[in-house]
Amino acid sequence: MVIPGKCHCGTIAFSLIWEPDPVEIPARACSCTFCTKHGGVWTSYPQGQLAITLRDPALVSSYVFGTRTATFHICTRCGVVPVVTSRIDDRLHAVVSVHAFEGIDPALVRRSPVDLDAEDESTRLARRKRNWIADVRFVEPGDRGR
Question: Is there a domain that residue 43 lies in?
Fold first, then answer.
């Protein structure tokens, strides 16, 4: 299954290949202050492939906080955060917002709360390396990423 997603105006878009088709999509409702204020609910598929397209990079802001190990990609036009990336051992990993999905049956999404505040930096990076999408590419508009 290809899961398309984008911010509200389409400046930041993604295409997540999830094979075989998921029976359900696990989603984590993060309790950190940033995610709480933005309604962050994230999913990843470690075996998936993610292509991220920035239609106009000048309209994309990056935000980091806390351990400064994750970058939230924010559309400055519409304010949506569809993708978070983390560089671990020279490899880009990512999660995507289920709120940014386009045309995906919401019944597939299984949300559960998660509190990661007690993690130290090494534990956090190890969890991301294990659980986040590890095949991540930024592609040019019009390119399918493969």
Answer: yes
